[in-house]
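Notebook, bench 3.
Goal today: get a predicted structure for Flagellar P-ring protein from Thalassococcus lentus so we can plan the truncation constructs. The sequence was checked against the plasmid map this morning, with no discrepancies at the termini. Length recorded as 369 residues. Pasting the sequence as submitted so the record is complete.
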Amino acid sequence: MTSIRTILFALISLCLVSTASAQSVRIKDLVEVDGVRSNDLVGYGLVVGLNGTGDGLRNAPFTEEIMTNILERLGVNVTGEQFRPRNVAAVFVTGRLPAFARAGSQIDVTVSAIGDAKSLLGGTLIMTPLNAADGEIYAVAQGTVIAGGVEAEGEGARVVQGVPTAGVIPSGARIEREVEFDFTQLSTLRLALREPDFTTAARIEDVINRRVGRQAATMLDAGTITVDLRRTGVASPARAVVAIENLSVEPERRARVVVDQRSGTIVMGSDVRLSRVAVSQGNLTLRIEEAPLAIQPNPFAEGETVIVPRTGAGIEEEPGIGLAEVPGGTSLSEVIAGLNALGVSPRDMIDILKSIKAAGALHAEFLVM
């Protein structure tokens, strides 16, 4: 808890300046170029070589099925055979095919158990084809799984740290098919903002036109800017992207407050403002104590010991924040700094912010995670 409070106070201290000047950001960090995208891949395979931590074939019949198919493709006939190995596990293999990836290149893949395997530590993924959404095979994965956890088990206890049933294979898949996309034939570039905003889109349009000087960029909406490559005077679309993506603009951000109730973390932007509002906060504590009393019979007397229940209950109201008025135009960072100076806990701060938002005095997007 101490580390969480430390992080929280550090984040709050970064927001103490109510008016912070925006910093320039490269266009490549704000937009995506239409057509330049990655593609998700998925495959179903088998991990072997586990130290008795694989699937129980009685509970995962699909593991036995894929193992039988692999052995038959290798020329081993196992039809009608009864085998129950504990060193194999059925897994899903996922990866991402980058834009402009070429055949022969290698990509990282993630391996995740789908049966009742306890651990993939030390296992080896057998050759697994990876398919895209169109059903075509674009890569083949194989290699040693690097799991991110530790598992130990004894006769009467078992301890697990991390997630040993999932792991990665760095450069574990080789690309076999390329995505058909001829970037050189484009006559217009479409830039899609990752966070649509009219002001940011207008600034991107202006800076591109100032750089090119021929009114090549046009803002279509809050999330799209088109660039006419014929007006850029650049020989190829790739060169046009190079000339555009490193230009800097000052993005406009929405006022936003993000809170994480589990850790008590509060993150806010510098543009968050409050209207005039009054705040009062206090805590109620309910205390119940059990103090049973044992009553025994007198010496040499007949009888049994009797337990008499005794319960003490009470409600205490701890001192909180009295009725305080927040003037209009105050920044949220100033309010948080004041609450922090009063010793208000992070969770109480979150409750106060929720109430201020419900009252309509917090002018920002309020996100609760």
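The chain has three domains: 22-35+181-249, 39-175, 256-368. The two ends are 18 Å apart (CA to CA).
Flagging this for group meeting.
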